Amino acid sequence: MKIYKEDLQSAASQGLISPQQVDALWDALSERNSDRPQFNFANVAFYFGALIVISAMTWFVVLAWESFGGGGIFLLASIYAFCFVIMGRRLWFNQNLKVPGGLLFTIAVCMTPLAIYGLQRWTGFWIQADPGTYRDYYHWIKGSWFFMEVGTIIVALVALKFVRFPFLTAPIAFSLYFISMDLTPLLFGKTDFNWKQRLLVSMWFGIACLIVAYLVDIRTRRQNGDFAFWLYLFGLIPFWFSLSFMGDSNEFQNFIYCLINLGLMMLSVLLRRKVFIVFGAIGVFGYFGYLASTVFKNAVLFPIVLTILGIFVIYLGILYQRNSQAIERFFEGLLPEQLRQILPRD
């Protein structure tokens, strides 16, 4: 819910609050939200600058860095991380600039895979064969990257212990997503694996990540920032894509796929998470495309039926918008009290 000062003035005109309380309440709300990320020029600049630095130190690390050797890469990454921590600490704790300070801590965390890569290159220790240059970390699935991903997660969790900045969960979620791919060669004990095995591991890892995201969601209750968003996103990515490409294209499996995506759309209402409805809607739309191109390819009435269905969905959206609170209370009333207590709340 977005609140503007005019909303408070409207409430005062209705006698809900006094006119004298408008300014005081607005100042209190502004102070409370000052540390939260907002869509304004300053925060866009903060995040854009942080992404440039993260990209420079991760995705765009050139082959010339390999000339420093493993020890040199480890030392450089460690120095960069230390400098970012010092700057972030100064902004976060001393100057109360939470967003730029938190982003600097996040940049420091993102130095972790580069530092671990340098250390492993220096010692020559790999779980499997030598995975190649650091640039391959973002392109190829290899079990030897595993320690880089686990190390990043551990360092990010330590940072979160001291700095409660929601964006610090992004490198955790990103590393979890990479683990979901790199676990496949480790679990099957070989570097060559088939597409089915890859999809199976990713799907179950995505489910596990979604469960973790839910536990984080109900624990934090979104009171001091959204710490679960990135976990939900990077849990849905491997789960949904694996589910979408795993079927054998028979009618029953495709129908079950549609039902699962409808379930994701329902979860978006219960969990108050828009990301579920995005993936679910894409899946249902893909199922309709399959019906149109295969099952009802020559059916004249199919486009008409879909049009009627689409208009009906829009009508349902209008009804929901007008009666959202009553509808949510109705559906929550159908759930047992124990289940209602464990649903996330804004």
Question: What can you tell me about this protein's structure?
Answer:
By secondary structure, the chain is mainly α. Helix 4 packs antiparallel against helix 6 (112-123), helix 7 packs antiparallel against helix 8 (169-187) and helix 11 packs antiparallel against helix 12. It has helices at 5-13, 19-33, 41-57, 69-94, 98-110, 112-123, 146-162, 169-187, 195-220, 229-246, 251-271, 274-295, 302-322, 324-334, 337-341. The relative contact order is 0.06. The mean pLDDT is 82.
Proportion in β-strands: under 5%
What is the percent of helical residues?
over 70%
Largest sheet report: none
Number of helices: 15
Quick description:
The protein has about 350 residues and is an all-alpha fold.
How do the helices and strands line up, and which of them pair or pack?
Blueprint: H1 5-13, H2 19-33, H3 41-57, H4 69-94, H5 98-110, H6 112-123, H7 146-162, H8 169-187, H9 195-220, H10 229-246, H11 251-271, H12 274-295, H13 302-322, H14 324-334, H15 337-341
Main attributes of the structure:
single chain, 73% helix, 346 residues, 15 helices, mainly alpha, 0% strand
